[in-house]
Amino acid sequence: MAIKITFDQSNTPESPTLVLANRNGSKLGVIKAHNITLADHLNSASEIQFKVYKYEDNIKNYLWDKITDFKLVWCKEWDNWFEIKIDINESNETIKNVYCTNLGQAELSQINLYDIEINTEKDIARDDYINPTVLYNENDTSCSLLHRILEKAP
Questions:
Q1: For the chain, what is the largest distance between any 2 Cα atoms, rounded to a whole number of angstroms?
Q2: Which one, 13, 31, 140, 153, has the greatest CB density within 10 A?
Q3: Closest CA to 29 of 63, 52, 56, 54
Q4: How does residue 93 score in pLDDT terms, banded at 50, 70 and 90?
Q5: Which candidate, 69, 81, 68, 88, places its Cα nearest to that of 3?
Q6: With 80 as the cut, is the pLDDT of residue 75 above it?
Q7: In this structure, what are the phi and psi dihedrals at residue 135, rounded to the nearest 5 degrees?
Q8: d(Cα 108, Cα 105) in Å, to the nearest integer?
Q9: CA distance linking residue 127 with residue 74, whole number of Å
Q10: DSSP string, 22-84
Q11: In the chain, pLDDT over 70 holds for what percent of residues?
């Protein structure tokens, strides 16, 4: 799903609601994010970056210790999940720089495809080979590249 940015009355982009969650999808709370930037491309993973301060007005952020690598962030407005990686900046104040990658793309990028042939002589020699493999074929999954690759995903 594409990221849609909403604007307020003065044409200022509205900040999305970012919710921290465990890998099982249980939501831990809304992240008070600062300096949010996002990138949504058709040819690469959607990404969000933001900063989280450990203390605001001398009060410790209640999610500070829970914001760790490989946790998830759910964006309410886009109903989209992201996997996070963090860097900690301990200059004058402690700040976590959070980098989020679209969860589906982050997980699929970790799959190694072994023993798969697409439109090669070995592929054509398959018993169930009927048509050349195309990007997507809803009616015949044996010649759909998307289906053949996703069947390798756990």
A1: 69
A2: 31
A3: 63
A4: low
A5: 81
A6: yes
A7: -55, -50
A8: 5
A9: 44
A10: -TT--EEEE---EEEEEE--SSS--EEEEEEESEETTEE-TTGGG--TT-EEEETTTTEEEEE
A11: 95
Asked whether the beta carbons of 67 and 98 are under 8 A apart, the reply is yes
pLDDT at 142 over 90: no
- 34 Cβ partners below 8 Å, 6+ apart? 50, 51, 52, 53
Token pair of 138 as six digits: 């809803």
Which of 100, 130, 102, 126 has its CA nearest to residue 37?
Answer: 100
Reference 106, options 37, 153, 51; nearest CA is 153
Q: How far apart are CA 101 and CA 84, in angstroms?
A: 7
Task: Kindly state the tokens that stand for 64.
Answer: 């500070």
How far, in Å, CA of 65 to CA of 99, rounded? 16
Tokens of 67: 């914001």
